[in-house]
């Protein structure tokens, strides 16, 4: 229908144009004369009752000419006027038909109009309701913001009150004295676990009250009296208990280590006294120091006295030196000498005392040894005595640190207050013994025992004995050096002509040196010491000179060489058994032996060329 209307409009336009052109041809020139043409004044031409613009008409015509139906009509030569009338007729028919359709549907249209009007009314009411809702929502939003602000303020107040409640609760809990605490402190024995628990609670409350009093809290005055009475009662019970434990140490035949170990379970008692009654704490500490110092002194004095009774009866004397001849005679009133001086310079099994298994073996029991008629060298007694001292000192130092809550210099001072008298007595005993000691091997073994015990004390983290070890070494080293110098001097001053008959076999003095030097070298290998090597070097020089002096006593060169080779070979063999192959002594005598062997080979070749 739209295409037909377009074609009709286009046809009308074409008809109008064609009619206009025909009229211009038929009318010809106007009456004004043959050359005069008056312009046609059409004014505002209204063809379709709409404003008609020629440019737009041309555009429409051009567009309509592009239509397929118009092209077809132009091609077939249809009469446009007739076609236009036909189109108008069809349009009128369509219009009439449309009017009839509208008339037939008038009721439905009226009903639709009424429905639309009703919908408009409903929508209008909805709009009013939504407007009311919008205004209500605006007021609710403002109320929500107000409530949110109020809620934030209430949360702040709540947190503040909770913080105050927590602080106040801590304060009240710290100040209130429960009945269970009062009952336990007043009635429970100190050995019961609940007494210890409530004592810790009492200590915490006393500390809290002192802290709050420093801040000026007035509520502390309400509980101060109760806490003071409970503190006095607890201090009294603790003092009696600890002093009874300390007094039990004094009973004869009592192993004091048992009650001492039991005291560690109640170490908080002393901490409580230290924090609440320092005078009582000092009294207990002084009583402990006085009691234990006497116990240790008595025990070690008795032990040392009984221990020295199981020492070998035959000990080295000042005349038992390396260069002293075996045939030397003594006066009528002199003591009998050792059956063989060679045992003084021989290590034998004595070196086992510094082995790891023997070093920390159980201490010697003197009365058991006496019943079994057993005897021991001095270094074994020294090891037993100082291992007991080391073990007890380590235990005592650790107990003092843990029970009396001290460390550093304070622990060191308290330890020496307990063990000082015992250590001084032990040093005096050692000093007294060393005055008449001429057994260099025993003294050297004691030095290495001390060095090893010092390492053990360091591993146990007990520095309190460091000064004592240094004092012991200060006694042992000078004595060892003195004995070694005495042996050096004895070898230096030995006159070969006074030694009696000589032969080419190894001399007993060189054998003594070989045994003695190998003993010291084997001991010194475990913990090398340069001082020892220097002293042995001096002794070695004197022994070499002695061997040369003795060799010079032989008349023949052959005997001299044989004597030198035998002595060097013997000393080298003994040293290689116990010392390392790369030691200075082994190298030195190896060189001497090689030199003398080469000389002997040269002389043999000289006198026996065919041998």
From TrEMBL:
> Vps52 C-terminal domain location, by residue?
290-598
UniProt keywords (A-Z) are: Golgi apparatus, Protein transport, Transport
What are this entry's molecular-function GO terms? syntaxin binding
According to its UniProt entry, the protein's GO biological process terms are: endocytic recycling; Golgi to vacuole transport; lysosomal transport; protein transport; retrograde transport, endosome to Golgi
Pfam short name (any one): Vps52_CC
UniProt KW Protein transport keyword:
yes
Main localisation, per the record?
Golgi
Question: Which PANTHER family is this protein grouped with?
Answer: SUPPRESSOR OF ACTIN MUTATIONS 2/VACUOLAR PROTEIN SORTING 52 (PTHR14190), VACUOLAR PROTEIN SORTING-ASSOCIATED PROTEIN 52 HOMOLOG (PTHR14190:SF7)
Q: Which family does it belong to?
A: Belongs to the VPS52 family.
- Name of protein: Vacuolar protein sorting-associated protein 52 homolog
